[in-house]
Amino acid sequence: MATLTGQSELEKAMRLRPGAAPDVLIEDLAEQLSILGEVEPPVDLRLLASLQSIDDVRETVSSHSGCLINEGGRLRIELCAMDSPERQSFTIGHEICHTLLPGFMMKQNFRCTPLRATPRRDGTLNIEWLADVGASELLLPRRFVGPTFASHPYGWDTIEQVKSDYGASLEATARRAVRLTPQPAFFVRLEFATSRQNAAPALRVKSAACSSALDVFIPPNKSIPRDHPIFRASEGEYVDELADMRSLRLPGKFLVSARPYPYNNDEGDTVMRVLVLGIKAPTARSVRL
Ligand SMILES: [Zn+2]
What does the pLDDT look like over 30-79, one tens digit per residue? Predict the structure, then answer.
């Protein structure tokens, strides 16, 4: 399926379906690859890599999570040995998707840190973000997780179960749930950080994602006021309530579920991380937090 000459699979798909958004197309291409591989959860990413002529996946010491290397037509993925197995799986998916995206034929290697990119607002292709979208479909195929998300409560209990079943990270699973939710919904990751204007640490946005029904840009580094309900999650509380989210430029009130998920950073320090899911005006009885 991979080709080292000519147009990328995404460019071909864009020609065939000019009205379709690139992220929809890369998700479809990833799904086709996944169906071709006849994978079932937990998905065998190395098998899917081999279908794209990537015959070597190895660990290495690197400051990047992953690298796709093309040596005279032989393709190899290098993974950061320090990353968790969940993160490595997502990275394999990300690198596989580079073989479907523009630029693959020209560049000798890609050095990637997945889940950092956001969609561009100017209509140009953000290849790193599109590789993330495709990786999500490879790791968490919608034909399997879609029915699970639709039939279970929208919240962290469901996310944790799916994460465990699919060998995905919490954040990748939360982003997948948001993307597959037909209602206005969002995910944010918050950590304490300073800003240029304010030297005192505040709980700030590190990354964010919105469902297609919520066309809003949540600014990176935007802070959460200390009196906002989701701030309490940074003090150890599970917060499940209706909250006004205009502090993140989201329109009005959402049912939010905020949980503390501290982690150890590269220096071995424990860092408080708050993950938040929010959904607007749930209508189905099954949708509860
Ligand atoms: Zn990349």
Answer: 999 999 999 999 999 999 999 999 999 999 988 889 999 988 889 999 99
Choose among 100, 102, 126: nearest CA to 114.
126
Q: pLDDT for 86-126, tens place per residue? A: 999 999 999 999 999 998 866 777 788 888 787 777 778 89
Reported residue count of the chain is: 289
Question: Is the torsion defined by CA of 143, 212, 128, 123 positive or negative?
Answer: positive
Residue 164 included in any domain = no
* Number of domains present in the structure of the chain: 2
234: domain CATH number is 3.30.450.130
- Quote the ligand 1 centre to 95 CA distance (angstroms): 6
- Over the Cα atoms of the chain, what is R_g? 19
The answer as to whether 18 is a domain residue is yes
Range of the domain at 267: 183-279
Environment of ion ligand 1 (residues, CB < 5 A): 110, 112, 128, 131
Q: What is the pTM of this model?
A: 0.91
Amino acid occupying residue 95: E
Give a yes or no: residue 229 inside a domain: yes
Ligand 1 centroid to Cα of residue 110, in Å, is: 6
Q: Which of 85, 107, 139 is the last residue of a domain?
A: 139
pLDDT tens column, 165-216: 999 999 999 999 999 999 999 999 999 999 888 888 999 999 999 999 998 9
